[in-house]
Amino acid sequence: MVLGFVTMLSFLVLYGILFPGRDMPVVSEVLPMFEGVFDSGIWFFLLGVIFGAFSIVATMLAEATSE
After folding, report:
1. Which pLDDT score, from 0 to 100, does residue 66 have?
2. I need a labelling partner for 15 at 20 to 30 A (CA). Which of 21, 24, 35, 44 fits?
């Protein structure tokens, strides 16, 4: 978890250095097929929360069924 947090901060700093003055890209800029659907940056946050929640649930299920 700490490694993921450090990696995320490193990539944010690297993005800020490589592209000064630009905001973080939204999903529609990264994946053109979602043009008009994911025009808000909140989708990165929501996708991260969903991925994290499912990771926690999967870990709990794996630990519960490993015995």
Report:
1. 79
2. 35
